[in-house]
Amino acid sequence: MKKFPIKDIYENCESIMVSLIVITLIIVFAFRAVSVDGDSMLPTLHHGERLITTNLFYTPEKGDIVVLDKNNELGKPLVKRVIATEGDTIRIDYTTGDVYVNGELLEESYILEKIEPVSINDIETTIKEGYVFVMGDNRNDSLDSRSQNIGQVNTKNILGKALFRIYPFDSIGGLY
């Protein structure tokens, strides 16, 4: 029977500890778990679902589901979809409920329903450098960039992109 010297045991323990510290740092700084609060992302996301997000080397792109920090009217993180990024021109036609980016009608199979017709002026604006325009998938029940209280969102206020749904367990998987 071969005896393990103390030095071998120490080196093995040291390797395990370093590995655990590295894994912990990656999980803490690269990924974050967030809960969906409310119905603004129906039918894509439901109240109470848990998501994994990351901001590691992340640049917002159209169609991404992102988590905004709590510096907003509600004082809590918000989950929204990026509709337009810096330099894009967005137009929302409130009579038809259609959304246009750079003059092209968005094909939005992910929304619950179009914006209900209202008698307010259409929105047309160009997104500032370093900002994005976000909206909930449940357009008629979402506090988002259409609101003066949220407006265009500074990319510094994005906690990260939602990658996976981890709860409920029967819905685990990637997000589109």
Would you kindly provide a written description of the structure presented here, covering whatever features stand out?
- Strands 1, 2, 3, 4, 9, 10, 11 and 12 form an 8-stranded antiparallel beta sheet that branches. A 4-stranded antiparallel beta sheet has the order 7-6-5-8, with no helix packed on it.
- Helix content is 14%, strand content 32%.
- It has 176 residues and is α+β, with helices and mostly antiparallel strands.
- It has a single domain, classed as Umud Fragment, subunit A (Ribbon).
- The longest helix is centred in the first third of the chain and has 25 residues.
- The protein is built from 1 helix and 12 strands.
- Strand 6 and strand 7 form a beta hairpin.
- The chain is elongated.
Give the SSE map:
Blueprint: H1 6-30, E1 31-35, E2 50-54, E3 65-68, E4 78-85, E5 89-93, E6 98-101, E7 104-105, E8 123-126, E9 131-135, E10 153-154, E11 158-167, E12 173-174
